[in-house]
Write a structure and sequence with these properties.
The protein contains 3 helices and 8 strands; from the N terminus they run H-H-E-E-E-E-E-H-E-E-E. It has 164 residues and is of the alpha+beta class. The chain has 2 domains: 3-36; 40-161, Lipocalin.
């Protein structure tokens, strides 16, 4: 076998695979840059759809930033399109419930949860669940969702999360 045929038989496919990995690495780098958006950029972005979007809880009322505890699901909700149901997690337990939507008015009800024992986050989860029952309207601005009460007070703030 000549060196040229050896090159064509082995090195060309290897070079092709290397180029593909390089291209994929470039795509991943672009995706990582996109996650580092500022608050202003997220608010100005194309509005996320209210339904079938994973909305991660980022703030309750005027409180501090909300994050997940180790080995526990992050607090979030997903309003399922066409079913009138939602699901998510409170930070410890999985949750399900019903919603009704009329224009910008949103009502969340019939919330049920699993009953896992959690050392961390139990009180925050209870506050989150009781706050869901107070929601009467919503506003989506860019990749942010605000749920408000009947007086227009922001109760919960969420951020759209997309799987890559």
């Amino acid at each position: 076998m000549s060196a040229t045929s050896h090159f064509r038989g082995f090195f060309r496919p290897a070079l092709g695979a290397l180029c593909m990995l390089w291209a994929l690495a470039g795509c991943a780098a672009e995706g990582n840059q996109a996650t580092g958006t500022s608050e202003a950029e997220a608010m100005a972005a194309e509005p996320a759809p209210l339904l079938n979007t994973y909305w991660k809880l980022v703030q309750m009322g005027d409180g501090s930033h909300v994050s997940a505890y180790d080995n526990q699901p992050e607090p979030h909700i997903v309003l399922e399109i066409g079913t009138g149901r939602f699901h998510g997690a409170g930070g410890c337990n999985r949750l399900r419930g019903s919603y009704s939507l009329d224009g910008r008015w949103l009502r969340l009800s019939a919330v049920t949860t699993t009953r896992m024992a959690c050392v961390q986050g139990r009180l925050r989860e209870q506050a989150f669940l009781s706050t869901l029952a107070q929601v009467s309207s919503f506003a989506v601005q860019g990749q942010k969702l605000a749920l408000t009460d009947a007086d227009g007070q922001v109760l919960l703030r969420f951020e759209a999360v997309y799987l890559r």
